[in-house]
Amino acid sequence: MLLTTILLWALNLSVTKYILTHGLHPLPYAAVRYGLAAAIFVCITLVAERTLRVERRHLPLVGLAIAALFANQLSFVLALDRTTASTIGLLLGAIPIFAGLLGLFIGAEHPSRRFWLGALVSSVGVALVAVGSAGDVSGGPVGILLGLSTGATWALYSVTVAPLMRTYSPYRISALVIPGAWVLLFLVGLPASRDQDWALGPEIWALLLFATIGPLVVTNVLWFRSIHRIGPARATLAVNLQPFVAAVLAVILLSEPLSALQVAGGVLIGVGILLARRRAPVAQGVLESGP
Fold first, then answer.
1. Neighbours of 271 (CB within 10 A)
2. pTM for this one?
3. Domain range spanning residue 224?
């Protein structure tokens, strides 16, 4: 289940990149995908739990989670529109570092020297990925910044939902947060959706359906069953493979270039994560990374 989850999350970057380069614009893609996922999660939760209710004291956290997921998906689709899936995959490897820094900011974490050493090593890795992608005409600083924003906002989302996970199931959280994020994506993407040519062909619609049901819905179920079976620490450590699997799949499936500097940067990001990690947060990976 865990390996299937990792593969689906990794494959999503290549699938999304292919969709965006074959006729569907970023904002309409995000709006349609999240609209479909919102309907699915609401139905699942109502059937399984009979309610979407949350306590009033938790509403601010739900609102912050909605804002974080909206920013994450906005960054995600715009980043993939501007640079390669392999580059974004490698940059997403820095998510645990962002989560640690956010934990320090809110006072939930007290990083050790190992964490700061890992953060430094990962930062050098991010810099190498950025420099290595500079020669690609589809890259550039905007794509890199959007990729980093994708990782940072996913870390913010993970930290935000962690307290909610102590009270509510992941399905109820998803049934609240995903529809909220979809409303924002729909409003922001409305002008682009009006200009979108929706005669995309069955292949693109099939891939869009896969990107919704596979990496966004099925992985939610598999991820939490994996946590129940083997524990959050082992499961989350294994998920650190996902960015590198995503980069490899992008090279194979999309024939994307991957320079030696990018490979070296990806390795340093991974080394930095291993140095910094003390305890894996349960909430990481509630939904796809996106990612």
1. 15
2. 0.82
3. 2-276
